[in-house]
Amino acid sequence: MSPAPGAGHRRASCRLHRALAQAAIAAGADAEVLEAVNVALPGGKLLVPDVVVVAAGAVGETTTRIPCEAVLAVVEVVSPSTVSIDRAVRPVVYAEAGIPVYWWVGLQGTPKVVVGSLSRGRYVTRTTLVAGTPGRITRPFAVELDPAHLTSRTA
Fold it and tell me: What are the structural domains of the chain?
């Protein structure tokens, strides 16, 4: 079993969940934003992204696995122990599953959010936000944020 993520990681995950959930409501999207749920991938693989945006109809009270076809976006908050997996392996697996949007959130050094959308079987970077410069992410719906506020105690 892996150790639980640190406080900064959990804060970032929670704040991204909240921002995406509010953005989904504002957009009138028939979507639900969840944290740390099982995503069922082709070949029997199972991954647990930090945040997942899913079609609302795919989630019931007893749902334990979200089919990848229902996933609109995944967000991975990178930990020092998972950086190579989150930057190299997971994007390939998510792209093969056809998940349209992948957010990669780096907290080490200068915090940043990199958003890629699926194009010809791989993710192409569409937006990069760096701490200290508020910006707008448009996928899967419009979200305004500054990565500097993802881990601070007072945000």
Answer: 7-149 (3.90.1570.10)
